[in-house]
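Appendix B, Record 12. Input sequence as logged:
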Amino acid sequence: MITQKMKYALKALLVLADEAARDRPEPLTIEVIAKRSGTPKRFLEHILLDVRNAGIIASIRGRSGGYSMIKKPAEISISELLRTIDGPIAPLPCLSRRAYQRCDDCTDEATCRIRRVFAEVFWSYLVIFESLTLEDMLGTPDLAQQVIEA
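Logged structural output:
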């Protein structure tokens, strides 16, 4: 299950991606992003900072400043965004690529039946998430609308 923070991040990025697709895109203030996405402003400040630090968006200071996309929606994998916002996405620490940790109670990963079952499910799940991009959400109005309305 994704967190509310992740849903807010997706909503904000969909708004920024829609703006980036316009003929003359302009940076959007946090107030505009909050209003268009239906996301509380106080949560967006921290979320947009994380997304900016990940190199997905840029922030511009000043009177005509705001946030804008610096990566194309096709370059923003949902799995990377999940990791940026929510941290590791593996169901067990011994399956994580970036935060691998051997389970405290495990004597042998190669024969661990719990790991084996969760690994099969997780790899199937991961293949889908790693191939899914923000552009896929933009190209599927029903999918993007479901995220915005959720």
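Strands lie at 57-60, 66-69.
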